[in-house]
């Protein structure tokens, strides 16, 4: 079964926030890079893409045939989606185990594991 692992960055530092990233120290920064490299090389993983910050988003709704746009998502920034990957795994337990290796999950964020609908 395929699972999408949705990475919610939360308060986890990223290189896009130089001050928070520097607080990790060089060894922890290298550990984060190494963890993502290992995850992306895991058999069954299709690396996804990182996303720009939530404030760059535009939310679209259609009401009564009119397209309505709103700047940003309707979530708190700390809850916003930061990236994703797809993992073809034997079962949910394997997907959970991989999600637990994603640095954001231990550094203040979360990873949502969701099965992909296959038609």
Tags for this entry?
alpha+beta; 119 residues; two-stranded antiparallel ribbon; four-stranded antiparallel β-sheet; Alpha-Beta Plaits
Strand order of the largest sheet: 2-5-1-6
Largest sheet: 4 strands, antiparallel
The CATH homologous superfamily is called Dimeric alpha+beta barrel
Give the radius of gyration.
16 Å
CATH class category: Alpha Beta
Helix proportion of residues, in percent?
A: 25-40%
CATH-defined topology: Alpha-Beta Plaits
Strand segment count: 6
The SSE order reads EHHEEEEHHE
Mean pLDDT, nearest integer? 89
Total of domains: 1
- Low-confidence sequence ranges: none
State the helix count: 4
Strand and helix layout:
Blueprint: E1 2-8, H1 18-24, H2 26-40, E2 45-50, E3 58-63, E4 66-71, E5 81-88, H3 92-101, H4 103-106, E6 110-115
Antiparallel strand pairs: 1-5, 1-6, 2-5, 3-4
